[in-house]
Design goal:
By secondary structure, this protein is an alpha/beta fold. Helices cover about 30% and strands about 15% of the residues. Bound molecules: SN-glycerol-3-phosphate and calcium ion. It holds the Pfam family GDPD.
Amino acid sequence: GASPGATPGPNRIAVVAHRGSSEDVPEHTLAAYRKAIEDGADALECDVRLTADGHLVCVHDRRVDRTSNGRGAVSALELQDLAALDFGSWRGLGESPDRDDSPRHERTSVLTLERLLELIADSGRRVELAVETKHPTRWAGRVEERLLALLGRFGLTEPPAGDPSAVRVMSFSARSLQRVREAAPRVPTVYLMQFVSPRLRDGRLPGGAGIAGPSMRIVRNHPEYVARAHRAGNQVHVWTVDAPGDVERCAALGVDAIITNRPRQVLSQLGRR
Ligand code: G3P
Ligand code: CA
């Protein structure tokens, strides 16, 4: 379908910072996103979850254990509980917050989506946001409702006529994306896929999402998928592309966006810095 597209014009691959510049800085922290903006990323990727008191926070896992010095499910904690935890002074890439030999990063509180939107608004240039709803179905529409209300406050759900949207919503849940399209038809939606089910091999997407979000594994094993998605009228945004060989493959196949933990290196490989 001809759903609203995202990002740059033809032939320019958008570089999207996955959880911020998360190879260098702990993921989903303000510092990781600041670095991504400095690195020149075209867009920032973040996962969002609802706290017990209904705030959207940028946390990937169901629990805070891996990425903070706390314990427990995000959905069981209130924002003030999360704000008391440290999400910064650990490394996060297979290392433990409890280990003494982990490299040190600055202490930092949980990042709210609102704060991330402020950072983007203050950046002084166009920086797009690709926000992923994590396990939204258990909240019966509240995640999408809160998300669109917040994006609306930042003027992001109704871009000026003719302008491409600066925000897109991604999800592994087709239902979540359907809700977004119903409530905010101008916000592009990205259907994320770990594997391609046989019924999606032709490049079409459930419910007419305008952008396919295949894993790098899909692109490696089924490179023909990219052309099929394009023929079906969909952009292709691939995750998570860190290895130079994979960047090369994506570029050769003409994907529309590369979602990576190392935007600086990818931009430089693409000759953009
Ligand atoms: O950008 C999509 C990608 O982030 C999906 O996987 O687990 O990293 O959220 P995950
Ligand atoms: Ca994600």
